[in-house]
Amino acid sequence: MTASTKGPGRPVDPARRERILEAALACMAEEQNFNMQQVAARAGVAKGTLYRHFANADALLLAVLERHHSQLAGQVDASAQNLPQVREHLLSLGLQLVDFYSSEAGIRLLRAVYAYGASHPQHGEMIFRDGPMAFVRRAAEHLQQAAELGAITLDDPLLRAEQLVGMWKGSLMSGLLMNGCHAPTIAQREERVVSATDLLLNALACQKT
């Protein structure tokens, strides 16, 4: 699903679009509410201007998620020629994830979208599909590359990717969301991602022997 963001009329102003996305996130985080009128007021734009950028509230919400995941997960590099290269891509993906979860901006976004999804069940499925599961699918694509190279045995790419992402996050995300722990250091984040990635890849490689 792709957000429909541009309607007829004047060209979309990228800076104004970013301001609208930030306003939508603020409404979700602080008010646990989300409608076009509130977002327009928060962004300091007319409601008609908001609709020139986003067709409806669903498109706006999806745009918030898409911006987050495009920045975080990026695109799968199709140039991997061996398992070490796939491993490096997975490490990069995992570090981006853990770094984001450990940042104030990341925690703010997670709290906002989780609270919004819980209080607006009609949007919960979309948030899950285009939020957490989008990242799992990206990790699954990397694992699929390793399988196509003959480096690992992969019975269920999505399941193995979900297990890997779960190991990357561990209990850290819950602790940070609840203010129950401090953000890990760079070295601690690297150790978390490297150990989890190697554990899964080694296990899947052993299945080939």
UniProtKB/TrEMBL annotation:
GO MF term list: DNA-binding transcription factor activity; transcription cis-regulatory region binding
Record keyword DNA-binding present: yes
Keywords: DNA-binding
Keyword ATP-binding applies: no
Taxonomy, superkingdom: Bacteria
InterPro entries in the record: Homeodomain-like_sf, HTH-type_TetR-like_transc_reg, HTH_TetR, Tet_transcr_reg_TetR-rel_C_sf, TetR_C_Proteobacteria
Record-annotated HTH tetR-type domain positions: 14-72
Name of this chain's protein: Transcriptional regulator, TetR family
Classification via SUPFAM superfamilies: Homeodomain-like, Tetracyclin repressor-like, C-terminal domain
The entry's DNA-binding region: 35-54
